[in-house]
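In this section we walk through a basic example: taking a raw amino acid sequence and producing a predicted 3D structure, encoded as discrete structure tokens. The instruction is simple. Fold the sequence below.
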Amino acid sequence: MNLAEGRVNTRSCALLFFILLSGSALAADSPLPAVSPVGLWLITLGIAFLIAEAALPNYGVIGLGGIIMFVIGALILGNAELPVPMMIGLGLISALLLIALVIRALKTRPRETVSGDSGLLGSVTPITTVQADDACNGWVQLQGERWQVLSATPLHAGQPVRVVSRKGLLLQVAATDAAPHGE
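The resulting token sequence is shown next.
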């Protein structure tokens, strides 16, 4: 974790703590007689959890809790003459936003390796140059680098070859018609 991530998490936690304190104060002494302080506190806490979900690197756990608290708080406030469809609509909108956040987070998960040995093995590339004294040795351009290659059969410039293995900085190759993928 770098310093910038620490600042974001600290700020988010400080904001969450401030909202929790204000929600507790609101629940303790509500000036509106028709409004349930517990309902207001749950809505405030639910909104704080939804904000924390956007700022913290988790996969929807805090946001799901926030939506549940928000909907329960809104249902408790049902005595305050708030329309039930509006409360349900706000809960559904919050759930859709949470689902969008979770989908976006899941898209950032690790994908298959495209570099190193696993990225090299099986790659097909043309021979750029062949050594004059040995037709089984040559050079290829692969993944932005120039590699020396060795083949069991003679090579010629422009011939497509498949990487079979790597030994240090030397790639073992075979002609594409002679080496099936994964060999």
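Looking at the output, two observations stand out. The domain at 116-175 is CATH 2.40.50.140 (OB fold (Dihydrolipoamide Acetyltransferase, E2P)). The helical segments are 3-28, 37-55, 61-76, 84-107, 116-120. In the next section we compare this with other chains.
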